[in-house]
Design the sequence.
């Protein structure tokens, strides 16, 4: 019995199915300059909607969005591109002189 067949047999016994995985770059053209911006806006809107659905106060949601926008303005790129050294630079250098409450609020976002 081949290894592939043995794996297929185990998967079938578990009631699972396998699907072929295709690289999306083969069928999708590269992103335009405005697509990441639109996606970032959609992600932030989704965050606002999720927090509102969870019952958070409008002021809390507004504060969350404001803190995220402050970080985004400093970073100059989408926040999902941020790496630990970038966060260290932001919280350790940029916010060094800020009150501890400000640093805490931004880090929690």
Sequence:
């Amino acid at each position: 019995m081949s290894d592939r067949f043995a794996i297929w047999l185990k998967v079938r016994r578990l009631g699972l199915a396998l699907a072929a995985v295709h690289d999306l770059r083969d069928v999708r053209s590269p992103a335009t300059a405005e697509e990441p911006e639109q996606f970032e806006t959609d992600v932030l809107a989704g965050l606002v909607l999720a927090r509102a659905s969870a019952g958070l106060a409008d002021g809390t949601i507004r504060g969350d969005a404001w803190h995220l926008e402050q970080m985004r303005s400093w970073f100059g790129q989408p926040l999902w591109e941020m790496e630990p050294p970038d966060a260290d630079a932001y919280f350790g250098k940029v916010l060094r002189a800020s009150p501890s409450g400000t640093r805490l609020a931004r880090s929690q976002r």
Residues 64 and 109 are 6 Å apart (CA to CA). The radius of gyration is 22 Å. The chain has a mean pLDDT of 84. The helical segments are 3-13, 34-53, 58-75, 84-94, 100-108.
